[in-house]
Write a structure and sequence with these properties.
By secondary structure, the chain is α+β, with helices and mostly antiparallel strands. It has helices at residues 12-19, 26-34, 43-53, 57-61, 66-69, 77-100, 107-119, 155-164, 185-199; strands spanning 125-131, 137-145, 169-175, 204-212, 215-218. The protein contains 9 helices and 5 strands; from the N terminus they run αααααααββαβαββ.
Amino acid sequence: MSLKDLPSDSLPREKLLTRGPAALSDAELLAILLRTGLAGRSVLHMAQDLLDSQGGLAGLLMANSDRALSGIKGLGPAKRSEILAVMELARRATAQQLRQSEVFDSPQAVQRYLQMHLAHLRHEVFAVLFLDSQHRLIALEELFRGTLTQTSVYPREVVLRALHHHAAALILAHNHPSGSVEPSQADQHLTSTLKTALALVDVRVLDHIIVAQGASLSMAERGLL
């Protein structure tokens, strides 16, 4: 069933034009992208099925590969590519915001940006936000994968990448696939080690942010930096 087959008072596109996008539910907004459903399954129901399969809109926003959306009935290559394109535009818009102003002007945007990139991963990833002298984003790089310990994250490599980007400061980040964002003793020890190493080349560590599905934690705000 397509959008045109729905009752006129429930058409998401018409509702958006008359009442604005904020009036639509997540499923209704997604239905506009999908346009058509399946035989016996309306496009709104299909949109809700897709949201449920990804853990809601936040989970869908973190999808960054065709494989993440494959296997969903009725979601062919064309629809998957459109959804992934919109999700990537959202990520790039957040990155642009961080490049144009100090990251501390919008700490929530920083954590949202990191969640988009890291929270959905099933393995631990250590990443770094490299910042200029005005604390604007230069680049985000994923540097290490696997359980974070002093032996798996090499301070020398982090220092070299900071020098490569001519960074004045940086924000450390990693994800916890377990869902908990509480910092471990290893997290705190690693942060201290990197902070000491980077101070030798006059690069400040502003924060270490831990993200998981639907949650994030700033070690700076916890007083652990």
